[in-house]
Amino acid sequence: MEISEIIHEQSYTRQIIENKNSYYGFYNAGSMSEFDVIVVGAGPAGASAAIKLASAKANVLLVDRADPPGSKNVSGGVLWGDSLSQVAPDWEKGPVERYVEAKGVSFLTKDSRISIDFRSKKFGEYKSGYTVLRTKFDAWLAKKAKDSGAMVVSGVTVDRLSMKDGKVIGVEQGGETITSDAVILAEGANSRIAIDSGIKKKPSDRNIALGIKEVIKLPEKTITDRFGLSSAKMGFASEYVLGFLEGGVRAGGFLYTNKESLSIGAVISMGDLRKNNQTYSFNIIEQFKEHPFIAPLLEGGRVEEYSAHLVPEGGLTVDSIYGKGYMIAGDAAGFTFSNGLVLQGMNYAVVSGIVAADSFLQRKEKGIEAGANFSNYMDNLSGTFVMKDMKNFKGVDAVTWSKSIHQTIPAIAEEAMLNIFSENGEPKKHMLKILLKSMAGRKESKKELAVDLYRMMRRL
Amino acid sequence: MTLEIVVMIKQVPDSQEVVIDPVTFTLNRSAARNVINPADENAIEAALRIKDKEKDVHITVITMGPPFAETALIDAMARGVDDAILVSDRAFAGADTYPTGLTLAATITRMGKFDIIFAGEESTDSSTGHVGPGVAEFLGIEQASYTSSTWIEDEFVYADRELEDGIETVRMKSPCLITVLTNSNVPRNPTLRMKIDSIKKGIKTWSLADIGLKPEWVGLKGSPTIVKSMRTINEKKREGKKFKAGEMDKFVDELVSKGILKL
Q1: Do A268 and A401 form a contact (C-beta atoms < 8 A)?
Q2: Which CATH number describes the domain made up of B3-217?
């Protein structure tokens, strides 16, 4: 071969390598890692992070255990707010179900329902949320990540983080390591990888509740009529305190309207389930469904989907949301919010995913090395509602899971309402008198109630 | 010399998720995710087992289908298949098993040298079992259908055929075609490493022009089958009723009155 040919050959080969590297992002020029970032878990947190990173031309791998990606993900089903528009401006035209115009909060006792049913035409200027069906929605979001340039691999479960000298240098699967400058762990509430990799303690029962959910098929018009909604595009979302369960098991319920189905479920205290060997978790959702004022709403429906999932409770579930070479986002970090009136998680996931991506890009600008410390993730997140809510509502679970909320208040409210709204031919009493009388009849819980009421004022 | 193996696969809707529309009698595939036809997974595994044992084996997986069938090919590559070809063209739409076999045979001919062709025994979405044997006929090569294992010994290809009354071991010269029984082996799982590599490597896509067939030979035009009508079997309506634990008497009475239980 002529020298000129060899040179030509070599430059040609180099050209191919360069092309290949630019296609897969030659972004990590100074680093030996295969990817800039590996995102574990294609839920709202992981997919948002991947979209943000890939849009900034970072070389990103999004990996999910389910195929199609996200099809094993479960949540109640309302995505509150508009945070997602930061990475997917057209999300409201995506696979969303109904826009929440009616929001309820109810106490259920064995025979009664005491409710707030708030409906407003102002839920346009004031943002509420959309009900979503996660299998559809998450697959759509993962597709967005792919279209943005991320490599999306589904149907593989990552075993653990790959560590070297106390730094995360990638992920391990099937005995092989895939390297990256950073890992964003968005693996959800179970957090098996974080626990197995030694960066998260196994959460205690106090920090975990069990969510059980069914999707019940009903015709679109039936749902619109039955829930008194103004159109087929509008939806109803309500949380319930299930104050009628045997054995003092504490559980909350939820009921959301989708286009042609209802999402109904219960979130049950893990500790109570363990204490109460007689109470099977599936009994609780059955009792909820059979409640005299819930059953008529489900009439004629057919169960289409059944799922269960752990729900993080009481704020942060990790000692640190960042470390050398990694950041933790979404449920895996414990970013959920519940004050009894609203249950939220997906919006926290989206924001934490985006901020994690931003924090990587911020570091990257200054030239990054594998295993860099991502303390800036915490700083950046502290400026958002995610960390602020975690801080301001710390300990709110002591109220939402209190005996007062789950037993005493529903019972007092029921008695008071019966006295206020019934007519038995006797002189009427002042409301305060009725309430005080109802409370007086419950000596055992008086002190506890006082403490809980004080906590409620402070924390809700 | 390299042993060239071709595996023919089909992407099908996951049969557990497919429902038949009670009005139009058509399959509603939209709700179902797409997977590799189960028997084809066994065919891929049979090919990979030969590659595990023999030196210098090259496996190519091929499919005729729409562009999104790429995911099935990537999945096959992630299990250890070397290359993948998607034969995709609007002209192939509506094909029955005859032009499908012809299209695949033309694709294999265009590929060049081949020694063994593997295929699943049949697909879960049409269950004809025609295509594998059809390809062997179009190519004029020997074939063994409904096999549970394949191996190479003294330059010959051996295969066990599972028949009703026993197992028949056949010996063939290559090139030959083998169809593989569902569940005849346990397909290996792709690893993350191999999935990444297969996505990076990508697949080849060929059109009608690439395989040199005339438009009237393929797709709906080239299909001799005409479906006259289709019926579904009506499901018997079941009456759901709940009884409490203390109502055993009532429960038994109800069963007796309905004639389900005879005293």
Answers
A1: no
A2: 3.40.50.620
